[in-house]
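Thread title: Can someone regenerate the structure for this chain?

I was given the following input by a collaborator and told the matching structure tokens would be attached. They weren't. Posting the sequence so someone can regenerate them.
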Amino acid sequence: MKLLHPLLFCAGAACLSACDDGRITLSVTDAPIDFADEVVVQFAGVAFERDDGSRDVIEFDSPLRIDLSRLTGEVSRVLVDSQPLPAAGYRAIEFSVDGNSQTTDTSYVLLSDGRRLPLYVPDAFEDDLRVVADFIIEEEETVSATVDFDLRRSIVIVDDVRAELRPSLRFILDDDASSVTGTVSESLLRSPCVPAIYLYEGSDVQPDDVGGAGEEPVSSAIVTTEAGSGTRRYTIGFLEPGDYTLALTCEADLDEPDGNDDIDFVRTRDIELRAGRRETANIQ
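Best answer:
Regenerated them for you:
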């Protein structure tokens, strides 16, 4: 899996104990959306919460702006690099994000039609910047982990001048991470088609939309076209091992995260993922 290191590293920290028993490298990735060319989020810091409720809060010397829309498939970007943390059990990670409904100077969304909208986290969704993260840091050990910002489930266009970030986060230890990739048969992509692959936990799952009353996808991927060959392909990364159902839809553009949308799925198939492995599952 590719890691894109930031130009600015997190040297500054607040509320850190003197203990230097272990370290953590934390990256971010994204399950993409099809209606935006850029989704830039400005990170101000991150907090690590131990099992006993105590926290280490890291405040970046300079805010770090990351275009999450570039971090799809198996691509991630380091947010915290080899940060010292006390050896202990941890239960959660919480992000500090800068955003304002009146300006695009911090976080923003650049829509496919050229509009650039301010991106902010509403007060009612600030708690969703906290993700359950069960891991242990041992003495002199470095833990590497990734948090998926699922943009398909997180970005809501409120009106012509604002976009909301309603975070849907998923944590995984990199040593456990698996991925799935494959081709999609052109004959399944009717016209018009905005194709995407949705991934559901468990076998033989009846797929449903992101905001529906049924089973919600764990992650998703846009079906892209390879330059030269024209092959249709998808990749979903940073997944827990286990049994999953893949589902292809041509109506990804109709799926709104805050509504129950009736979208059609044209093909499904099961896949078993194993830790540290990339599996191939072609949709035909």
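The radius of gyration is 19 Å.
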